[in-house]
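Suppose a classmate hands you a notebook page containing two proteins, each written out with its sequence and a corresponding row of structure tokens. How would you begin to make sense of it? This section walks through that situation. The first entry is reproduced here exactly as it would appear on such a page.
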Amino acid sequence: MLDILIKDILPIFVIMFLGFASGKSKAFKYEDAQILNKLVLNYALPAALFVSIVKADRTMLFGDIKLTIISFVIITGVFLWSYFSCYKFFKHTKSEAAVCALISGSPTIGFLGFAVLEPIYGATASTGLVVAIISIVVNAINIPIGMALMNAGGNSSEQKNGKKSNPVLSALSQPVCWAPILAVILVLLGIKFPAVLDPNFELIAKANSGVAVFAAGLTLSGMKFQMDKEVAYNAVVKLLIMPAILLVVGLIFKMNAANLQMMVLAGALPPAFSGIIIGSRYQLYVRTGTSSLAFSIFAFVVAAPFWIWVARMVA
């Protein structure tokens, strides 16, 4: 666990601090974060999502149908609960609530999935199965839903200019939505994406996580970090409620023990950076969202060993 914290969690703090320090020293302006987020949201993130999903196959998707169904139902359910609670309890707009759901209702499986699971459970087919399925749920289902909810709240450029637009179609026109959906369609059709073409996407995809975390730090430098009940609530939903429900439901339906343990730990990962990127790009829920990410990353240092121990004990 110490090895994971040093190799996988510490770099997030370091890069985020560099972004924060660059903003405070005026090496980068606060507005520059918008340019970086636009780069990530329109190019790097869609490429990363496409490449990661298209490497799966139908055997992976249906290899453990319990894993697929439970991951989809619980993660999407918590995602929608985060949206509802942010809108109803904390009185944010629907667009802000959508960004909140993308943060507190989505684990950062693409960035930390293999990095956290493989050292503990090994580089096995089961590990790849868990990461692939949860990546599809988060990236090909939750992101399009979140974008549609955000646009339904009146955030699309067409709506701001006084034009009517369908929120679903508006969301699907974004690369961050159609790229993972296209990848899932290729997987379901059994169309193997040529591996020789991977480098064309991976070169820009590699910029995704680093630039996103740096931009989050730069964004945080332009505002005061807040620690309040909403930030704490978001962390509880992401780090405690989601993995707890995954564990209970997995036990009820008698999932494979190894897959159950990995699914629970994957559900306990910190918030997805895609939510921060989208929020920063559209200037929605930025301060609370970035503060929630930072606090959740710190809290993950405690949450990860806890869920590893609990899942092993009961699975």
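The notebook's second entry, a different protein, reads as follows.
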Amino acid sequence: MTTSALPTRRFLDEAKSLACVHCGLCLGACPTYLETGNENDSPRGRIYIMRALEQGRLALADAAVRHVDLCLGCRACEVACPSGVQYGQLLEAAREHIEERFRRSAFQTFLRRVAIEEVFPFPARMKPVLWAARLARKLGLEPLFPKFAREALTLVPQDTSADGLPEVSPAATTPLKGRVGFIQGCVMSVMFGRTNAASVQLLNRAGYEVLTPPGQTCCGALYAHTGVLERARQCARRNIALFESLNLDAIIINAAGCGSTLKEYGHLLREDAPWAERAQQFSAKVKDLTEWLKPRDFKSQISNLKFITYHDACHLAHPQRITQPPRDLIRAVAGESFVELPESDVCCGSAGSYNLTEPEMAERLQRRKIGNILKTGAQIVVTTNPGCLLQIRAGLQKAGASRVHVLHIADFLLERINKNVQAP
């Protein structure tokens, strides 16, 4: 709400900020610009705002912060940019500066610093909150809540809990192809336990022994994306120390947002001499589930498969540049039943905790995504990130299209395998 009295300081990498030549090729890739048409809600406009804040030409006040807050951090602009602007790194630095020096309203402070940052990265805290939310829905209490809370309740999934993953899951085939670690995640372990189990089972079937060591902590994505970088670094150090002694061929993650941050630990800890090289070595081993599994392990044997489409999770398609492997896996079992989704890589509005902090824009993007899904006629939507799953499911339900099923790619592939095995 107000500007702090602290003086301006340099928080941007000057070379990276000056790499933007304001050509405008990012405009068509930016979801918020597509919705508002406002230059300040575009990547090049936001970079201009960031530089103006750093140089003291613009006050750190509501107007400027609003445009930076409205950014989804989807990083679609990086793919479109011919100059190779590292927008995600600029955004994280700017948000760190804002969080340190800008005084938000009491509600936004509570939402960000307490309800989100002190709950979602901690599974033990998340579970009772989800239990209370499910109880409120079961008792039909939604009408008693304000619109913001009602929208949040629509995101809460039905109980998808599962037994915790074993520390060691042996390969289901011989010879052994290798030994991989598995990161079970915060939201994934609580809201999508069965999906984690499906992911490990797929890896076992592919010939890999899977280690899921206890003591894992949040990957740090939620903190990094909201500008709380020191807490993200603390998470990174803990995870590196836990996994680096296990002699693994790879470290597998099945959540796109988490994977993006895990692969960027080297950048996150670049100025921390004791950890910089260890972070690079850790990140080099991180692989998304879809880039580790091979299409040849899946065969299409079912002729009555429903039409299937695929939504590109932002942090898989943009920072990680992984778009073809998941499609190849889906086509391996779907064949001609696969249909492309219009604007498949435009954000669905979830963006981590964005649909909680910016519900109005999140809902606009949700409607846009649901409209494109319905145009395909698909009865199954596959994606690779928990936030996308929750956002798209809620959007389909609101649109009266709950007949369309939304599945994580691990659940989709395992379901196809099991049906093939059962087929006469």
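A careful reader of the second entry would note: The first strand starts at residue 2 and ends at 3.
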